[in-house]
Each structure stands twice: as structure tokens, then as C-alpha cells.
């Protein structure tokens, strides 16, 4: 609606200019000047839609300002010539239907309107591109704000999970028991516990972090959970080194691992396997967290966390990010696939 309103307001002056140019000549039939100006303006407006379609198609392609300027000038000239030719053909088509249109068609030299049309299209294009850029920046800023809010929600949810009496009680008791057996290991566990809390309380505030950062907090979390679950937690990891520097939403891997342990493996007395796979290649990042068990057990109580993760993936990567949580045989598999991640 906003675009069409601006289109109407923008092309109205062009219509008035065309009427002004012909005001001194007496009309040879009723509404001659209006017919001429309106038909030319409508064709010119149609030409601007072609320009818009081309600019939208090329908006995601890289290119410097000089390339864009050359495109604007070249495309404006081409569309102006086509519109002028189309208007000329229209007048002659009318002349073939009604004889009183013949003088009007004969009075219009071919491409006589193209120079003014070209200048108008260049001005229209520059204004359109400037407004489009402002709109994209506004949308990006809004997405960043929403992403920041969603990240705070995710951090709060994760922090509340880590600060739950059950988790704290188990972690502290396990570390206390470890002090009597291996003081050095107990000290290391305290350090990992502190790292885990620091990551969520006063660590990196960026919405996107590297896979390496996420793996560090995953390892800290799993080290603490091993104290509690012992041999019941069997962990397998396969990480492509090329993925370590890729960017992913903060607390994405950590959330999937925590869900697999909390709602899957820790709910049974028998040993369970947790697998983590991360690989990257040619502009994509794939992260897979699998645990043995049934989806109904793993998915229980994870709704808010997963909804938040999906929201942050959409805000950060749009349609380039996909998330799925599926039962595959004896495994519950959570996947994040991101295209075009830096």
C-alpha cells in the first residue's frame, strides 16, 4: 500500500508536466491532452515496475556504488526508450481505429519523450534505492533488537535451569565428594562450573558466537553431568575443525545437549549415548545432537527453549536456517542447518 501511494504521488507531477507542455496547443478532440498525458504516464509507471523488479532481483548480489550507478543509468535509458516506443505504437494503434487520432500520432516524433523519461527514471531509481536501503536497515535493526531480547530470554531460561536447586545440589555434592578423592579434579570441576555460569551471566553478549565457544560451554556442562551420571552418560563427539570458527546463535548447541541429557539420558537408569556432530563446508553449518531414547521423553518440558531457539535462528539467519527434532530409529535427533553462515 505504501509503495503504491508513493507511486501515485510520484508520477502525478509527471502527468501534470505533460499536460503543461501541451497547454498552449488547442485540443483537436475532447480530452486530447489528458489522453496523451495519461497514456504516457501509465506506460511510464509500468516501466518503473520493471525497474523495481530488476533492483529487487539484484539487491542480494554484491556490487559497488559505481556498478549500481551504471545499472541505474543504463536501465533507465533502456526502459525510457521502450516506453517511448510503446507509447508511439499505442498512438498509431488508436489512429488505425479512429481517424481523428492520426494528427496526434503524426505529431509525436519517435523517442522525443525518451530524454525526459530517462531523467525521471534515474531520479525515481535513486529515490527508490535510497528508501529501500533505509527500509532494509530498519528491518535489520528491528531483527537485531528482537534477537537480543530472545537471547536474554534464552540466557534466563538456561540460567534458571543451571541454578535450579536440583542441578546446584547435585553439582555441589558431587564436587564435594570429589574433593575427598581427587582434589585437583575437584578444583577443575569448580572451574568448569564457574565457566558455565559466567557464559550465561556476564560472558559474551553477542547474539552469535563461534562453534568453538559453544563447544567450550558444552564440555563444561558435560563434565559436571558426568560427575552425576557416571557411566550412564556415554559421549561421542565428531567435530570438523573447519566449523570451529563458524557463527551460530549463542546457547544453541548447549540447549540441545542439555535437553538430550536432562529430558532423555538422565531419565533412565540404563546407560545412554549422546552424540554431537558438527561439520561445515561451502557456506553451510550443520550441527546434530543425538541421544538414545524416545522422542516423547526428550521433548518433554523443552517447548519454551526450542521455541526460543527457532525464533533466534529465524531472526539471525531467516530462511537460511532450519531446525528439526525427530525420532530416527532408536535415536532422538536434533538438527540445525544454516546456509551462508560466515
Proportion of helical residues: 55-70%
Portion in beta strands = 5-15%
Low-confidence stretches: none
User: What's the SSE pattern?
Assistant: HHHHHHHEHEEHEEHHEE
Distance between the termini: 35 Å
Rg, alpha carbons: 32 Å
Structural class: alpha+beta
What overall geometry do the principal axes of the alpha carbons give?
rod-shaped
Secondary structure: number of strands: 7
Count of helix runs: 11
Mean pLDDT: 83
Largest sheet: 5 strands, mixed
Strand order within the widest sheet?
2-4-5-7-6
Quaternary organization: single chain
Task: Give a quick rundown of the structure.
With 342 residues, the protein is of the alpha+beta class.
Could you explain how this protein is built, in words?
With 342 residues, the chain is of the alpha+beta class. 65% of the residues lie in helices and 14% in strands. The strands form 2 sheets. Strands 2-4-5-7-6 form a 5-stranded mixed sheet, with helices on one face. It has a two-stranded antiparallel sheet with strand order 1-3. A hairpin with a 2-residue loop joins strand 6 (321-328) and strand 7 (331-339). The chain starts with a helix and ends with a strand.
Structural features:
342 residues, alpha+beta, 5-stranded mixed β-sheet, two-stranded antiparallel ribbon
Helix and strand layout, with pairings?
Layout: H1 2-21, H2 32-58, H3 65-97, H4 102-106, H5 114-162, H6 165-181, H7 183-201, E1 208-210, H8 211-229, E2 233-239, E3 247-249, H9 252-263, E4 272-281, E5 284-292, H10 295-299, H11 303-317, E6 321-328, E7 331-339
Parallel strand pairs: 2-4
Antiparallel strand pairs: 1-3, 4-5, 5-7, 6-7
Amino acid at each position: 500500500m505504501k509503495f503504491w501511494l508513493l507511486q501515485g504521488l510520484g508520477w502525478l507531477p509527471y502527468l501534470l508536466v505533460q499536460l503543461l507542455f501541451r497547454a498552449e496547443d488547442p485540443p483537436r478532440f475532447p480530452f486530447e491532452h489528458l489522453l496523451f498525458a495519461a497514456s504516457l504516464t501509465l506506460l511510464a509507471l509500468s516501466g518503473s515496475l520493471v525497474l523495481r523488479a530488476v533492483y529487487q532481483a539484484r539487491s542480494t548480489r554484491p556490487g559497488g556504488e559505481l556498478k549500481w550507478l551504471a545499472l541505474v543509468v543504463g536501465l533507465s535509458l533502456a526502459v525510457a526508450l521502450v516506453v517511448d516506443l510503446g507509447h508511439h505504437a499505442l498512438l498509431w494503434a488508436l489512429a488505425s481505429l479512429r481517424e481523428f487520432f492520426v494528427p496526434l500520432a503524426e505529431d509525436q516524433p519517435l523517442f522525443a519523450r525518451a530524454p525526459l523519461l530517462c531523467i525521471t527514471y534515474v531520479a525515481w531509481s535513486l529515490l527508490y534505492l535510497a528508501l529501500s536501503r533505509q527500509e532494509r536497515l530498519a528491518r535489520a535493526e528491528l531483527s537485531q533488537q528482537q534477537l537480543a531480547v530472545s537471547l536474554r530470554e534464552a540466557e534466563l531460561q538456561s540460567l534458571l535451569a543451571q541454578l535450579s536447586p536440583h542441578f546446584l545440589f547435585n553439582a555441589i555434592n558431587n564436587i564435594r565428594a570429589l574433593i575427598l578423592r581427587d582434589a585437583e579434579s575437584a578444583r577443575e570441576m569448580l572451574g568448569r562450573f564457574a565457566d558455565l555460569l559466567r557464559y550465561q551471566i556476564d560472558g559474551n553478549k553477542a547474539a552469535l558466537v563461534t562453534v568453538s565457544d559453544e563447544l567450550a560451554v558444552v564440555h563444561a556442562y558435560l563434565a559436571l553431568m558426568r560427575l552425576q551420571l557416571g557411566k550412564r552418560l556415554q559421549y561421542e563427539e565428531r567435530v570438523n575443525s573447519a566449523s570451529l570458527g563458524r557463527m551460530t546463535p549463542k546457547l544453541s548447541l548447549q540447549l540441545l545437549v542439555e535437553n538430550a541429557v536432562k529430558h532423555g539420558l538422565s531419565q533412565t537408569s540404563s546407560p545412554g549415548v549422546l552424540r554431537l556432530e558438527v561439520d561445515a563446508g561451502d557456506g553451510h553449518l550443520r550441527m546434530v545432537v543425538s541421544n538414545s531414547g524416545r522422542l516423547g521423553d526428550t521433548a518433554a518440558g523443552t517447548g519454551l527453549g526450542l521455541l526460543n531457539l527457532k525464533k533466534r535462528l529465524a531472526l539471525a539467519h531467516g530462511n537460511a536456517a532450519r531446525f528439526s527434532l525427530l525420532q530416527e530409529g532408536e535415536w532422538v535427533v536434533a538438527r540445525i542447518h544454516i546456509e551462508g553462515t560466515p
